[in-house]
Amino acid sequence: MITSLYSAVSGISANGTALTVIGDNIANLNTIGFKSSRVSFGDILSQSLAGGLSQIGRGVILSDVSPLFSQGSFQTSPNVLDMAIDGEGLFIVKEASGARYYTRAGQFSLNKEGYIINPEGLYLQGYLADATGKILGALSDLQLGTTQSPPNMTVNANIAVNLDAKAVPPADPFTLDGNGDGVDDDPANFNSSTTITVYDSQGGAHTVTLYFVKTGDNAWTVNYVHRNPDPTDPNIYIEAGTQNLTFDANGALINDNSGTAIDFDFGASVITPQSITFDFGRGTGETPPGTGLDGTTQFASPFSVLTINQDGYPAGHLKTVSISEDGVITGIFTNGQTRILGQIALARFVAPTGLLKMGKNLFAETYESGQPIIGSPNTSGLGRVLTNSLELSNVDLAEEFIKMISMQRGFQANSRMVSTVDDLMAELVNMKR
Question: How crowded is residue 247: how many other Cβ atoms within 10 Å of its Cβ?
């Protein structure tokens, strides 16, 4: 009789603990990346009596509480650093002390040093990239905020225009002193003009004006003019050089003489001279020959600019990032450039149910979980990374309510068993009386 009392007490304890686990699951219904837990019960048998193994039970024991790593639903987020994992992988985060943890909660942001951190300040781990965008192999803290895009000096420019074949060559040569006052501030004697912005070795922008002067039948000269970098010089503009263009009778470009670069002087503080090659298209007389119609042409129609581009750009700071399903982080800079900054690393465990819950959505490696398999997303079964998304809790509220009712009834039944044993013991005492 006493044995049944202890069996009932074990049932009360086990069902009470199970209710605690269920309550924890329900409480974390809206916790991002939360993985619900389940309990496992095991029966207890009495010791050998009278020389044989007794099959009489001695109650129940709570044998295990383990997390369930089933996939949660996804929720859209406006934050590009909010990420979810579609697969078995876990994000790797690290404390400043070096302790490493694992999580499915992908709520990340940047701290004041530019590191990607979770709400608890732990650093997201991944692979950084060098200045050329090559992913490095060492696992480290991902830092983005201090990244800059260095400037690039203009070396090549591509221009396509149509020069009016009906234009008449100016009577006088091209000049920067059109008003005759001795100061180069009034370009004159040209047919058409356009401008292009080029960049020096420090990323400084300079406007270069291209003055097109017709010099004869199917022949043009381009005069390159820019502002004088010396503010003490009375000549506001200086001419960097000229380039000759020749066309055939069909208006196709024969040769643009782009083999010779134009040297610019943008000041003593930058690389001087700065040589820039201006390509107006592949002429029929160049090597290798082109069509003469894929760039600059000379047709009997008004002057028009078709395309202007060059390979220089100023310095820029990080504006935003994009993250691919492979976890590759690409920086988008204010100067319009893009560069790979790093790649997120994921971890997978052979026995994830053996991980130790540390609170705050963190798991720690244990002997039962085995060592982590670390790699890039979309490899080794780690799953893919979804940006602008968060994984919701995998708690099934309906299922938890059913379990709660079941455990509640189990608790009540064992409590009734204690009451019944108490009544029987009272009857036994009354028999002596």
Answer: 24
Q: Which residue type does 307 have?
A: T
Helix (H) or strand (E) holding 128: strand 123-129
| 3-state SS, residue 393 | coil
The pLDDT of residue 301: 97
Burial class (CB in 10 A: 0-12, 13-18, 19+), 193: middle
CB neighbours of residue 312 within 10 Å: 22
Omega of the bond leading into 273 within 30 degrees of 0 (cis): yes
pLDDT of residue 324: 95
288: amino acid identity, one letter: P
What token pair was written down for 404? Answer: 């709660």
Tokens read off for 144: 């983005």
d(CA 209, CA 203): 19
Answering whether pTM is above 0.90, one says no
- For residues 429 and 427, give the distance between their C-alpha atoms in angstroms, rounded to a whole number: 5
| C-alpha to C-alpha distance for 433 and 425, rounded to whole angstroms | 13
Residue 240 burial (CB count, 10 A):
17
Higher pLDDT, 50 or 199: 199
Tokens of 31: 């916790």
Tens-digit pLDDT profile for residues 1-38: 677 777 888 888 888 989 999 999 999 999 999 999 99
Which residues are registered as beta bridge partners of 90?
347
Query: Amino acid letter at 267?
Result: G
Calpha distance 8→1 (Å, rounded): 11
- Residue 143: other Cβ atoms inside 10 A: 19
First-last CA distance in the chain: 20
